[in-house]
Specification:
The protein is an alpha+beta fold and 264 residues long. The chain is 50% helix and 19% strand. The chain folds into two domains: 73 residues, Winged helix-like DNA-binding domain superfamily/Winged helix DNA-binding domain (Arc Repressor Mutant, subunit A, Orthogonal Bundle); 176 residues, GAF domain (Beta-Lactamase), CATH 3.30.450.40.
């Protein structure tokens, strides 16, 4: 019992504390919930929470545990130290003023899209994206743009990992539908790769469509992507086609500032 109640040490302590922070970020609000999910002893969870709260990583509120001010400070520091966000912002502000719709900049973070910049549109519609939030790679236009240089096998792997349960169910009919959905997705990706852009046709959020294009650096690698998003009434197919040129032009301008030599 003494060994179980003693504080964990070393790297494992750090990783365990970080896992608690992540669980709170994902919606856990009570110590008992953290204990249940992690399987840690109650005393260990209590000690780690006290340490995290004392350093400002977590805080108590009437609604339960929340992320603390230290993480806000670190988040802003991380954003300001990212050269892509700093370089892209003036271009994105000009684009947002031109199109009047929501403009995003995002990068790939493991198997998700991580939003670095969001400039809300002027048409009153709000969407669930926010700076620091993550979205699926294969369900967002900006995520598909980030994936354009990857091999089709990677596209398929990402799609399967993010596919809804009803598209990956074991029933024969579901398998057939899932295979068809994957085939359609891969076909669109090949088409997007040829054009150097990607669309989101309400795949990530009902009623929201977007036009996206990749951003490259001096090594020609895709380091992020930008997008223009709006509700479906403001994004009929003809307007999406019209937005391709300004979105790709801004992506190219940012890429040039990142050291990429844009053809022509």
């Amino acid at each position: 019992m003494r060994q179980a109640d003693s504080p964990p040490k070393g790297a494992q302590t750090l990783l365990t504390g970080l896992s608690l922070v992540r669980l709170v970020a994902d919606g856990a609000r009570k110590a008992s919930e953290l204990q249940r999910v992690t399987g840690l002893p109650r005393s260990t969870v209590h000690r780690l929470l006290q340490a995290l709260k004392s350093e400002g990583y977590l805080r108590d509120t009437p609604a339960g545990l929340r992320l603390g001010p230290t993480l806000i400070e670190l988040g802003f520091s991380a954003l300001s130290s990212n050269p892509l966000a700093a370089v892209a912002r003036p271009f994105l502000e000009d684009l947002a003023a031109e199109v009047l719709d929501t403009v995003h900049l995002a990068v790939r973070d493991h198997e998700s899209v991580l939003y670095l910049v969001k400039i809300p549109g002027q048409r009153g519609a709000e969407m669930r994206s926010r700076v620091g939030s993550r979205m699926p790679l294969t369900r967002t236009g900006i995520g598909k743009a980030i994936l354009l240089d990857d091999e089709p096998a990677i596209w398929a792997e990402c799609w399967r990992a993010e596919a809804p349960a009803d598209e990956t169910a074991a029933a024969p009919a579901a398998n057939t539908a899932g295979a068809k959905a994957e085939e359609d997705f891969l076909g669109r990706m090949h088409h997007y790769r040829k054009g150097g852009y990607a669309y989101d046709m309400e795949e990530n959020e009902p009623g929201i469509r977007c036009v996206a294009a990749p951003v490259r650096d001096g090594s020609r690698a895709i380091v992020g992507a930008i997008s223009v998003s709006a509700t479906a009434p403001y994004m009929p197919p003809n307007r999406m086609r019209e937005l391709l040129t300004p979105v790709q032009d801004v992506a190219d301008a940012i890429s040039k500032e990142m050291g990429h030599k844009v053809a022509g």
